């Protein structure tokens, strides 16, 4: 079954072709970073307009790369949420229009399920069950995964997501958008031990996260350095390292607890922050001690992309799940409300 995957949840337009027999045939991604950089973050209206401009040309580009035509497509998957409602509507509208014209099934896919399943595109995919750490600009969650659509929420952020804290810290340090990779790059120049930041909610049991207090601690540290006239490049790097280390340690501690409590021996990390090198190193070291194994997608599939949507959509479309005539656009969508892939269901995944 040849599936066209469309991702337009935020500021990246992703398209891919996935065949359930041959695997990923082609994919393309257009990033709007340059458009939003002047504003220090994503402007929803500009994001929607640029998706309109780029989506169909990217579809044609991917089809050409794979040597396929639109008539070869047997199903379409698009991101239905969570995300920016206008951006989601662009992808949903194009998907449904193409599906209607080609008389093929169309399915709205959960964005975070796409991230969670992205490691399945690799040569050595994880088996079920596993614990997944979903960590991005909008989400920080720990989920037990017993199968596609069989999700148990173990813990999540009670306020800011880790990726959001990275972006806010970048602004405090005078770094450009997107903040996460820039904080990580600056931290490489930092000196260990000059600052010690708290590891929030690790001094108590449980698997929930909180990064709002860490963000405030960073702001107070930056303000103090500025007042003392010591906010030079080295100080900024030292603060970046202290912040990154605090986030990485917090995530690692919670992942260790999740593995112990669940009894799982496999850990999947997914989402934009999963590309962070310090986080990957720390989780791999922890997993060795826990006699567990860590899985993650290649860096290009950690951020938003069409390949993960095509793969996730293919699994559900093969099971007989598809949208009705309604375009799904769900800005907020708890992942543990998704039905198992083993339950064929028409008219979409949202009541």
TrEMBL record:
It catalyses: L-threonylcarbamoyladenylate + adenosine(37) in tRNA = N(6)-L-threonylcarbamoyladenosine(37) in tRNA + AMP + H(+). SUPFAM superfamilies: Actin-like ATPase domain. Fe cation binds at residues 111, 115, 304. The keyword Cytoplasm applies. It is found in: Cytoplasm. It comes from Marinobacter persicus. GO terms for cellular component: cytoplasm. It holds the Pfam family TsaD. Binds 1 Fe(2+) ion per subunit. One of its GO terms (molecular function) is tRNA N(6)-L-threonylcarbamoyladenine synthase activity. CDD domains: ASKHA_NBD_TsaD_bac. Required for the formation of a threonylcarbamoyl group on adenosine at position 37 (t(6)A37) in tRNAs that read codons beginning with adenine. Is involved in the transfer of the threonylcarbamoyl moiety of threonylcarbamoyl-AMP (TC-AMP) to the N6 group of A37, together with TsaE and TsaB. TsaD likely plays a direct catalytic role in this reaction. The keyword Glycosyltransferase does not apply. It is an enzyme of class 2 (transferase). It comes from the Bacteria. Residues 24-311 form the Gcp-like domain. Keywords: Acyltransferase, Cytoplasm, Iron, Metal-binding, Transferase, tRNA processing. Its EC number is 2.3.1.234. Substrate binds at residues 134-138, 167, 180, 276. Its cofactor is Fe(2+). GO terms for biological process: tRNA threonylcarbamoyladenosine modification. Belongs to the KAE1 / TsaD family. The gene is tsaD. Its main location: cytoplasm. This is tRNA N6-adenosine threonylcarbamoyltransferase.
């Amino acid at each position: 079954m040849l599936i066209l995957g469309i991702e337009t949840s935020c500021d990246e337009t992703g398209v891919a072709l996935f065949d359930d027999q041959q695997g990923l045939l082609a994919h393309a991604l257009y990033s709007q970073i340059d458009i939003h950089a002047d504003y220090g973050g994503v402007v929803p209206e500009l994001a929607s307009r640029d998706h309109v401009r780029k989506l169909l040309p990217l579809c044609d580009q991917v089809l050409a790369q794979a040597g396929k035509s639109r008539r070869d497509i047997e199903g379409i998957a698009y991101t239905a949420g969570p995300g920016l409602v206008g951006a989601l509507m662009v992808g949903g509208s194009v998907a449904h229009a193409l599906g209607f014209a080609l008389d093929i099934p169309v399915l709205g896919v959960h964005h975070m399920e796409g991230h969670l399943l992205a490691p399945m595109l690799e040569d050595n995919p994880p088996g079920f069950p596993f614990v997944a750490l979903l960590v991005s600009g909008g989400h920080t969650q720990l989920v037990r995964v017993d199968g596609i659509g069989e999700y148990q929420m173990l813990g999540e952020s009670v306020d800011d997501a880790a990726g959001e804290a990275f972006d806010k810290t970048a602004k405090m340090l005078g770094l450009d958008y997107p903040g996460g990779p820039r904080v990580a790059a600056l931290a490489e120049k930092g000196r260990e031990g000059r600052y010690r930041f708290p590891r929030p909610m690790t001094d108590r049991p449980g698997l929930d996260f909180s990064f709002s207090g860490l963000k405030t601690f960073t702001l107070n540290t930056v303000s103090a350095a500025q007042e003392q006239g010591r906010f030079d490049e080295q100080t900024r790097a030292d603060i970046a390292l202290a912040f990154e280390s605090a986030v990485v340690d917090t995530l690692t501690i919670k992942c260790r607890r999740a593995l112990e409590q669940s009894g799982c021996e496999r850990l999947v990390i997914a989402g934009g922050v999963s590309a962070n090198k310090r986080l990957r190193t720390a989780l791999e070291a922890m997993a060795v001690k826990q006699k567990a194994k860590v899985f993650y997608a290649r860096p290009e599939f950690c951020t938003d992309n069409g390949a993960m949507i095509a793969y996730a959509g293919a699994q559900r479309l093969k099971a007989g799940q598809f949208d009705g005539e309604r375009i799904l656009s769900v800005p907020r969508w708890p992942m543990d409300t998704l039905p198992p892939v083993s339950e064929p269901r028409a008219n979409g995944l949202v009541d």
